[in-house]
Design goal:
This protein is globular. By secondary structure, it is an alpha/beta fold. It folds into two domains: 1-34 and 191-226, no CATH class; 46-189 and 229-299, Rossmann fold, CATH 3.40.50.1820. It has an eight-stranded mixed beta sheet with strand order 1-2-4-3-5-6-7-8, sandwiched between helices. The longest helix has 18 residues, at 134-151. The protein has helices at residues 4-12, 19-31, 38-48, 101-109, 134-151, 164-172, 191-201, 207-220, 254-262, 280-283, 285-299, and strands at 60-65, 71-77, 85-90, 113-117, 156-162, 181-185, 240-245, 267-272. Mean pLDDT is 93; it is low at 14-18. The protein contains eleven helices and eight strands. Helix 1 (4-12) packs antiparallel against helix 2 (19-31), helix 2 (19-31) crosses helix 8 and helix 5 packs across helix 6.
Length: 300
């Protein structure tokens, strides 16, 4: 699985000798990191845990149109037992919808139908730049609307996201409060603190981040200072479970701690011992599943 941390850490290693040129290079790398194919994602999952259950029954694939007409590829994975519970799972940067298989079994066992999809610019979707939760949250909002229209307005619907998917999940709460819960695993409160940490680790001057942010606003229409999922939380009343690897040194645990404090609604935070970025469910699978199930029991 291509790691979010590799892309930005590689970008941060570029020196500041030529600020403008380096800024553009860094920006393009940050906004257009290499994406995995579905086959690559599935192979990675299969090499790291049991996925023999996947495809039984066969997922139903379809596309939806987002707020601006952009096409999103979606897979509906039906629970073997009839249920009115649904969860939308949102993957991380450079990954695709099959990267969320490691969480799906938890929800299938808990009696949920699972919906996975490719984030904008990822998987089978048309290539485009990443806005670190801004357009991505609006896409998720469109998928939520489609899910209610497709499966019924009275279904019990929740959200689960990883990394960029967690940030997009949190930000989507800015647009609607009609989901039952959200689980945000290793999400960032704002993208600037993540980039700043990567730059500092690679001895890149802070001013280059400002150059890059200004370029993002000019070239892509969104500056880094706008990419702040935490801003959705002061008015939020959807219950949220924040999960974070205690040893995550890329998107550090204080991001989840800040977001837990910021939300107006019920929130829990579980730090996973020994886990780095985006691998909590693999390092501590039993603790992870127990944490999610206990949270679901409370909010259901």
């Amino acid at each position: 699985m291509k790691k979010f941390t590799r892309i930005l850490t590689a970008a941060a290693s570029v020196t500041a000798a030529a600020a403008a040129g380096s800024g553009i290079f860094l920006l393009n790398t940050t906004m257009y990191g290499k994406r995995q194919t579905l086959a690559e994602a599935y192979e990675w999952q299969a090499n790291h845990y049991d996925v023999s259950w996947f495809g039984k029954p066969e997922p139903v694939n379809y596309t939806i149109r987002s707020y601006d007409g952009y096409e999103l590829h979606v897979s509906f994975c039906e629970n073997p037992e009839p249920t009115d519970r649904y969860v939308i799972l949102t993957h991380g940067y450079t990954d695709n919808r099959l990267g969320m298989l490691k969480y799906m079994k938890i929800y299938l066992d808990a009696g949920y139908n699972c919906i996975i999809y490719d984030l904008r610019g990822h998987g089978e979707n048309k290539r485009t730049f990443c806005t670190y939760s801004i357009r991505e949250a609006q896409d998720l909002n469109a998928l939520i609307s489609d899910t209610y229209k497709r499966y019924g307005k009275d279904i019990f619907l929740g959200l689960h996201g990883e990394s960029l998917g967690a940030a997009s999940t949190v930000r989507s709460l800015m647009y609607r409060q009609d989901v039952k819960f959200a689980v945000a695993d290793c999400g960032f409160a704002d993208i600037e603190n993540v980039l700043k940490g990567a730059y500092a680790a690679n001895h890149v001057p802070d001013f280059l981040l400002k150059v890059q942010s200004a370029l993002a606003g000019t070239l892509y229409g969104y500056s880094f200072s706008e990419m702040r999922p935490i801003d959705a939380l002061p008015q939020n009343h959807v219950p949220i479970l924040f999960i974070h690897g205690a040893e995550d040194n890329f998107i550090t645990p204080d991001n989840s701690e800040r977001m837990k404090k910021a939300t107006a609604g019920y929130a829990e935070l579980q730090l996973i011992p020994g886990a780095g970025h985006a691998n909590s469910v693999l390092v501590q699978p039993e603790l992870y599943a127990e944490t999610v199930r206990a949270f679901l029991d409370k909010i259901e």
